[in-house]
Amino acid sequence: MSIVKLSAKDGTPVEFEDRIIGAGGMKDVYFAPDKSYVAAFFRTKQDANARDRLENIVNKYRQSIFSQTGGDYWKDLYCWPEKIVEWDGKVGIVVPTYAKHFFFQHGSLNSDSLSIRGKEKQGKWFASPFLKFGQLSANERGDWFSYLRICINISRGVRRMHAAGLAHSDLSYKNVLVDPITAKASIIDIDGLVVPGKFAPDVVGTPDFIAPEVMKTLKLDVRDPNRKLPSRQTDQHALAVLIYMYLLNRHPLRGKKVHDCDDENRDEELAMGEKALFIEHASDSSNRYDKGWVKRDNTPSRLQFLLPWMDLDELPYTILGPYLEKLVKKAFENGLHSPIQRPTADDWETELVKTSDLLQQCANPSCTQKWFPFDNSKRPVCPFCKTPFKGVLPILNLYYKQGSTFKPDNHRVMVYNGVRLYSWHVNRKVFPNEKLTPDQKQPVAYFQFHNGHWFLVNQTLANMKDITDNKKLVVPGAAVQLTDGRQILLSEEDGGRLIQVQLVQC
């Protein structure tokens, strides 16, 4: 096999094997001899505007994201083009090879009957109950907590792009690689970004993720001022759809309502565009389906994997917990046809992180999801396998210091054996994102169940105090028992947290 050798636009050498190893919607892909990167060439001619947009993505915006302090953090969240090349009259980009964990190791059931072992873990495999549970090996699936962390990573990646003034234009499970085993995610197809001041790329999105306003105006000329093009607001819609699908394994808009019985394409345009309606809308149930409708539309062999995910009564979106519940409603009721009201990527990241503190371990060792969000009930039950929690359930209500007083934080932490507290639990001004220092990533305290009682063990906090016990100092290495109503001060700094313990007997 011949090796093509050429110079990138920045003058650096590029080599690749003269054999197409993959073909996307717009590009042909070639491997470097050492498989460390690929060269992807556009099949159609790129005009001056397209070239200029690529130059900005590869140079200006890549530098602004990766060359700043903490830039290495983003290398795991993006597969960002590094160079521009030209060959045989075509424009191409050089992109790092995907990390090893983004390729299937076990593949599908029945000795990989679908022959996907070694192929990319496109997000579609993990957003459909039939594909996830009916086709994939159990070793590839992960649990509910892993998908929550995947959603945090995707939200964080989208938030950073938007902060730079960029939009993805085609955010979907086609362009996000996920690994439920490591809870990693990587946003790909970065070359299609919407760059400020540049003419928008040709792509408008992937079906299921195109925003209603884009779908509604799709047939208008691209230069028509009424045509809606990809933007940060259309990304916000796609992000909400992704999160809903990863956590609930169904599409938020694909319900039972039929808009045009005679024209399938027109029906699709209306259902995803002008007439789009949330399947779980609080006041309009016309697009809502029930278990009977799902049964009528699917064979028994498929049905066993679709239910209970497709049963809106069994697993409504409210099982996501109070923080995510409000964002889902905002995204698919208030913001569905009003882009300005959509939750931002920052909103999703914040509430997803808070939801991770609400997770409980399911008492059923056979539960496929293993985790579920606490629903503020005195007798919590796993919504996935219906196993009730039994025993003493410690709940930590967080307060934060502002001036001389402590105020409610609308943030709770569920306690289970071995769970740890970190700097972002100690002070609300610290948030677990790319800005964390190495010291801030280390645990500062942990919880342990011993002799029938729960304890909080201090590891590194210098000023931890038991307020209930006359402000007694709890030095590193010491522990304080969790009793109902006990108040524990973690930090006296501005933004510092006070814990109030609530013990629930289930």
Structural class: alpha+beta
What is the second-level CATH architecture of the largest domain? Answer: Orthogonal Bundle
Q: Please, what is the CATH homologous superfamily of the largest domain?
A: Transferase(Phosphotransferase) domain 1
Q: Quick one: how many beta strands? A: 21
CATH class of the largest domain: Mainly Alpha
**Rg:** 25 Å
CATH topology of the largest domain, which one? Answer: Transferase(Phosphotransferase), domain 1
3D shape: globular
Q: How many separate helices?
A: 12
How much of the sequence lies in strands comes to 15-25%
Relative helix content: 10-25%
User: How many domains make up the coordinates?
Assistant: 3
Sheet having the most strands: 6 strands, antiparallel
Mean pLDDT: 94
Strand line-up of the largest beta sheet: 13-12-21-20-17-18
Low-confidence blocks of residues: none
Determine the N-to-C terminus distance.
Answer: 67 Å
